[in-house]
Amino acid sequence: MEAHAVATHAHAAPTGFIRKYIFSLDHKVIGKQYYFLALFSVVVGILLSVLMRWHLVWPDARIPLLDKLSPTGAPGGIMTPEYYLSLLTMHGTLMVFFVLTTAPQSGFGNFLLPIQIGAEDMAFPRLNMLSFWVTFAGLVVLLSSFFVGDGPPLSGWTAYTPLSAVGSVAGPGEGTGQTLWVISIALFCVGSLLGALNFITTTLDLRTRGLTLMRLPLTCWAWFITAVLALLSFAVLFAAGVLLLLDRVGGTSFFVPAGLVVSDQRIAHSGGSPLLWQHLFWFFGHPEVYIAILPGMGITSHVLSTFSRKPIFGYRAMVYAMMAIGFLGFMVWGHHMFVSGMSPYVGFAFSVFTMAIGVPSAIKTFNWLGTLWGGKLRLNTAMLFAIGFVSLFVSGGLSGLFLAQPPVDTNLHATYFVVGHFHLVMGVAAIFGMFAGTFFWFPKMFGRMMNETLGKIHFWITFVGVYCIFMPMHFLGLEGNIRRYSRFTDVNFLVPLIPLHKFMTIAAFVTAGAQFIFLFNLFWSMFKGEKATENPWEATSLEWTVPSPPPFDNFAGRHPVVYRGPYEFSVPGAPKDYVMQDAPEPVAAH
Amino acid sequence: MGSTTLTPPKTKPPRGTRLGKPGRSGDGFGWGDGHGFSGGPGGGWSVPARAYRTGMWLALGAIVMLFAAFTSALVVRRGISNDWVPTALPRILYLNTVILAASSLTLELGRRALTADLATQFSRWLYATAGLGIAFVAGQLTAWHQLAARGVYLATNPSSSFFYLLTAAHGVHLLGGIAALAYLCWRVAGFNSSRRTAVDVTAIYWHFMTGLWVYILVLLTARF
């Protein structure tokens, strides 16, 4: 081959504030930027969910300041049903895209992938910076819908057509708000595609000497497989978004059927297929849930092994299970559409593939349990959150097997059963992965330790709290409690369920309040925490061979050489109970 | 751990072949073989050339998914409704196709010239490629004008919607290729037979754009 080193990066640390902290090319800064973007989004998202839970059980309560945010959506502080749907849409969109897709992959992945593979940066630092700022622009565009026109759209994070395609006739927020939503998602797609391209290339081509694929930490495998899913699925969402935008502003009829009447008005479009949107959306949307959860699986594997002081149980099985989950994730989008009137034969095929995902998921779960079994457990906060991840993943995953069956799903689809399912398995499980990652890598990212006591208090309130919020949703669903409705208090058959709803709302208030403990711990520890040593957890992967926080080029000009896998804990005969990945043979030499 | 006799770890020791072989063409990059070691101490950090190829192929993968989604939308939209009236395509599209195919040819001739270190010829073929690319875009715009003159717009019919959508999506991607060619023209003196990754990566993209256009043309004209 011709030229090898085409671009020698002028890789000196920038000195100006803007190049150092704003438009930085350093993967560590970009990773933190993504992390804080997600942190901001999750605070807004939780606030919205608290407002919704408040309204659900006290629908006539005046919520302070809400009428200031939207005089029409909440006159006198009392939410209209439409404004409830606006908040629902923004909660879902913020959480799925700007939290679950952003922090575990782009946040932790950006900060740690190059260090864990012994590289100095991502393969394309400029693309990396661009992908962050495009994502940031997407967030700004999304949030701007609160302040323009009739407020945010009503159509949920899935933006089902045709109502999302016909404009303001479909309700407040369906004019400007929905257009801004589509533009925001399109921007997010571009940012994610650039990021995915960077992650895959970096993992394939920048690994240091001796770091073969089967010596990669499972975190790197998770980020890699997630990036492949993102590369293949976000392009499809982008295409769907372009078509939706053209239907909205270009007068085309991709998704709007003939003869549609909305709010007593005949819609001029003709001949489109609302189901086409659902197919395109869920072809992205199902891989998306694995984009959200796979990095959490990687973090959990990494943390469980470290604090069990044992090698991960079945390393290869873990890798192949993640690949199988990623592969099968592309074959199951139809299970979101069982009630769309699809052929029962097609539904059967989607059902079988969906239940097949239970196999690699079970492999991972049993391997996590196998890792814990007989380990010398160090039950610190990161470990607790990783164990919590396993618990939530199992609890939320089991109801997935119910919903994978078309006859059951037909009954449960529009109920709180589904809300409980996906919040446990995709929402809070992934968030527990982020908490585990935060407590585990905080010393590396900020050079200080987080407070363990506060961390454990935060863990226990959150762990019990999320079960109190989301487990009852399954019972509500079985009782036929429909989701997306803003008001149940007047519905006779649901009135007996209101006390349960009140319990969930109070649990939501307490759990949301407990997050202030985390926020305090995070920011206080950044400045006042105990100074972190190079390897406070006695972990083995390469990020623990560099100072905390790492120097600008990660390894200070050194090129690490890797001699072994990432989970060599309690190796018989070794002087310590862990062997670093870069410890050369023989073990005694370390 | 007071023991002085150490037993080896259970894992296999690293195989020699997996470690970078210093003699192999300067550096054995990627694939766990280490990367960019040729610079030596203080030589700065370098990204191996193969990373740029990998990145380009991945970008093409995403573009394939984008157009696969458009294709499936077209097939579904044409299949489910009775309002599809085929749009007669302007003939200039076939001329444009020839122009774009010629641009791929001139780019290849340029790359051959580069291999032979014929700098002047390389630069001529490069300018020719960029010129043909611009001519193609102008031709596509002419096709749009001709359709509009016939009263066929984006929202006239689903077939015209897809015509404008696909030609625009291809055109936007092609403009990216023209920007890359313009960059190559600007830095033309910096390339030679051993320093050419940017040229080769651009060529991958450009040929893909030619192939994509032929695919779109077939999709728009085929009756199935």
State the helicity of chain B in percent bands: 55-70%
Radius of gyration of chain A: 24 Å
Q: Tally the helices of chain B: what do you get?
A: 5
CATH architecture descriptor text of the largest domain in chain A: Up-down Bundle
SSE string of chain A: EHHHHHHHHEEHHHHHHHHH
Beta strand % of chain A? under 5%
Radius of gyration of chain B: 25 Å
- What is the top-level CATH class of the largest domain in chain A? Mainly Alpha
Distance between the ends of chain B: 75 Å
Describe this structure in words.
The complex is a heterodimer of chains A (590) and B (224). Chain A is mainly alpha-helical. Chain A has three domains: 23-272, Cytochrome c oxidase-like, subunit I domain (Cytochrome C Oxidase, Chain A), CATH 1.20.210; 302-528, Cytochrome c oxidase-like, subunit I domain (Cytochrome C Oxidase, Chain A), CATH 1.20.210; 536-590, no CATH class. Helix content of chain A is 60%, strand content 2%. Chain A is built from 17 helices and three strands. Chain A has helices at residues 17-22, 27-57, 66-69, 81-100, 102-116, 125-144, 176-205, 218-250, 274-308, 315-329, 344-356, 358-372, 381-403, 406-412, 416-446, 452-478, 498-528; strands spanning 5-9, 261-262, 265-266. Chain B is an all-alpha fold and 224 residues long. Chain B has a single domain (49-221), classed as Cytochrome c oxidase, subunit III, four-helix bundle (Four Helix Bundle (Hemerythrin (Met), subunit A)), CATH 1.20.120. Chain B is built from five helices and one strand, in the order E-H-H-H-H-H. In chain B, helix 3 packs antiparallel against helix 4 (158-186). The radius of gyration of chain B is 25 Å and the shape is elongated. The interface between A and B is large, with 80 and 76 residues. Strand 1 of chain A pairs antiparallel with strand 1 (45-48) of chain B.
